[in-house]
Amino acid sequence: MARHRATETPARTGNYLRLVYDARDLLPRADTVHYVEKFQPTKTRNYEFDGNRPISDFRVATDSWFVLDHLSSREPSFAPSAAHLESLINSTTTNDLEDIVEQTKGLVAMMAQDPSLKAKFQPLVEKNVQAILARQHDDCGWVTAEYMSNEQFFDAAARAPFEKPTDPSLQFVTGEVLYTLKIAGYDMNDPRLQKAERWLLGLQRDFGGWLDNKGELFLQPHLETKWAVMGLSQNNPESGPAVPPAPAPPAFLNADLSPEEIRDLPLAPTLDWLDQLWYDRQASHLGLVLPLLSSPEPLVREAAAAAIGRMAVDAPDAAPFEVAVKPLVGALGDRVKMVSRAAAWSLRQLGNDGLGIDEVKATLASDDDYTRRGAARVFYQYAYHMSGREDVARALIRGVDDPDMLVRIESLKALWRWWYRTPDFTLRREIEQAFLERAGVEREHPLVRLNVAQALHNILDENTVQFHKNWLRSMALQADRDRAEQARIEEVERPLAKELAAALTPENATARLTLLTALDYYFLRGGIGNDYDPIMFYDRQAAETVARALLPLVDSPDAQLAGKALKALAVVREARYRDVLMAVMRKLASPDKSTREIAEQELSRFPTEYVSQTRPARTPAGGGR
C-alpha cells in the first residue's frame, strides 16, 4: 500500500482480519466477555500483544479498518467487513490514556479517509480531547498506565486508577499527546499545551534525542525521540525554502560518449550527479546513466548501477526502465563486488515491478561463478513481489548444490525467505529437502554448513508462540481457530517433524550436528528481545516424532553430539513425553559439569505440570466472542 502501484500485500492479511472482526459485536478485549479457556491466564489486559508491550486494541482496529477499506476498493466483498469494523471502533470503553489517544488518532484518520464518518465520530473525538486534557500532570506532561513501570506484564486497567497528577510524566506519551491534539483540531495556543511543549523541549538530551527512564523493556531513545519530534514539529511547522530540483546533468555527459570519453570523465562531478538521482523517471537521464556502466572506474560503475535502481523504485510505470535490464544483468558478473551488489540491488527493484526476472533467472545458469553469485543475490532479500515465480525458486534450489560456495550461500539465504512467502506447500517441501540434503554433505565449507543451519532454524522458528497464543486467540469463532490450528499442524509442524526425524536417524554425523545446531542455535540474538520464543513443536504428535529421533542421541558417546541433542530436547517440551523429561533429569547426575548445567537450563524451560498428557478442554464452537 506504500508503493505507487497496487500490490498483493493487503489481500494477504484481509481474510485474517475478517476472521478476527466479522463475527464480533465488540472489539476483542481480554476480559470475561472474551474469555477463552485455552489462552488463560491472560497476562495483559489488552487483547493484542506483540511479545514486548501490549498494543492498544483501538490502534489495531483502526489499522485493520484501513486495510479492509482499501481492499473494498479492489474487491467489493470486503466492504461489509470494513463497515462492520467501523461500527466496532467505539463499541467498548477505553481503559487508559493510551487507548484514548490511539482511538482518537484512528478516528481522525478514518474521517480524513471517509468524510462521511465525521458526523458519527467527531463528537467522540471532542470528548476524547477533553479527557486527554484532564489527565495532564503537574509537571505539564502525560503518562499512561501501560508504561508506569518497566514490568512487562501487569493489569494496566487495574493500575490506571492509581495514577496521580504528581507522578512524573513520560516524554514519549507527552509528544504523542501533543501530536494527537493537533491533528484532532484543538487550539494549540492553550497555555497548558504551551507549557507541555516547553517541558518536552527542555528534556532533549545532548545527543539530540529524548529518553525516558521507565516504560520500555529496553533503555533506548527511539520511541521517545520519535514522538517528541512528531509532536513538536506538528505544532511548530517551519516553512523553509522549497526543495531545489535535482541538478541538471553535467554538460560533459551525453548518451553517445565513446569508451575513451567515458574513461576521461571527471570523477567527482560524475559521482556527485549520480548520487543525487532519486526517483528520477526521465528517460533522457536514464540514457545518460546506462553508458557509465561500462566505465573503467569501479566507483562510477557502482554509482551508475545503484542510481538506476533509485530512479526506478516504485515507479508508477516501470516499462521505460526495461532498457536497463540487459546492462545491469551484464554487471552482475563484475569482478568488483560493490558493482555486482549494486547491479543486483537495482535488478531487485526492477524485478519487484515485473521487469528482468526471466533474464536474471537465465543468468543463474551462467558458466561464470561471479555472474551466478550476483544473480542469486538479487533474490536473497526484499524480493517480495517475485515470490510468485516458483520457477525461479526451483532454480535457486538447484543453486544449493552449485559448485561455487558463495552461490550456495546466496541460494540458501533466498530460499528460507521464499519458504515463508510461498503458499505452495509442495514448493516448501522441496526447499526443506534441499536444506536437509545439504546438511548431510561431508567436507562442506563451514560457512555453507552454518548457512544451512541458519536456514533450517529460520523455517522452524516461526515465532510460533504468537500463532498459538495470540493470533489464534484473536479469531472470533472457535471453528475458525480449530481450522487454522489444524492447517498449520498438518501443513507445517507434522511434515517438518517427519523430515527432521528421518534426517537425524541415519549414521551421518555431519547431518546430525548441522540439524542439532539448527535446533538450539540463536545466531541473530541470545534469546532476548521481542523475538523471545525458541523453536517449539506445539503439536504433540509432531513433538513426539522429533523426540523419538533425539532421545538416542542424548546418550551418544560423542560428547558434542550428546550435548547438542540434550539442548535440542527443549523443542519438544510441549509433548508431555515422559521419556524426554526422564532423559533430561538423568543428566542432572552426570559427572560432567557442563552436561549438568545444560540439563538444569533445559529443565527450567519445561512445563511445570509436565506429566499431564490430557489436552485442554475446548471452548464450545462460537465461544470467545
Short overview:
This protein is mainly alpha-helical. It has 28 helices and two strands. A hairpin with a 4-residue loop joins strand 1 and strand 2.
Task: Output the keywords.
single chain; Leucine-rich Repeat Variant; 625 residues; mainly alpha; two-stranded antiparallel ribbon; globular; disordered C terminus; 55% helix; 2 strands
Descriptive notes:
The chain has helices at residues 9-21, 57-74, 79-88, 97-113, 118-134, 156-159, 171-183, 191-201, 222-235, 259-263, 267-275, 283-289, 298-312, 325-331, 337-352, 357-363, 369-377, 390-399, 405-421, 425-439, 446-460, 464-474, 478-504, 509-520, 540-554, 559-568, 578-586, 593-603; strands at 48-49, 54-55. It has three domains: 9-235, no CATH class; 241-423, Leucine-rich Repeat Variant (Alpha Horseshoe), CATH 1.25.10; 430-625, Alpha Horseshoe (Leucine-rich Repeat Variant). By secondary structure, it is an all-alpha fold. The chain has a two-stranded antiparallel ribbon with strand order 1-2. Strand 1 and strand 2 (54-55) form a beta hairpin.
What would you call the shape?
A: globular
Tell me, rounded to a whole number, the average pLDDT: 88
Q: What share of residues are in beta strands?
A: under 5%
Helix content: 55-70%
How many domains? The number is: 3
Biggest pleated sheet: 2 strands, antiparallel
Radius of gyration over all CA atoms, rounded: 28 Å
Task: Report the strand count.
Answer: 2
Strand line-up in the sheet with most strands: 1-2
Instruction: Report low-confidence residues grouped into runs of 5 or more.
Output: 41-45, 612-625
Figure out the total of helices: 28
Gap between N and C termini, in Å? 30 Å
Secondary-structure element pattern, one letter each: HEEHHHHHHHHHHHHHHHHHHHHHHHHHHH
Which structural class is indicated by helix and strand composition?
A: mainly alpha
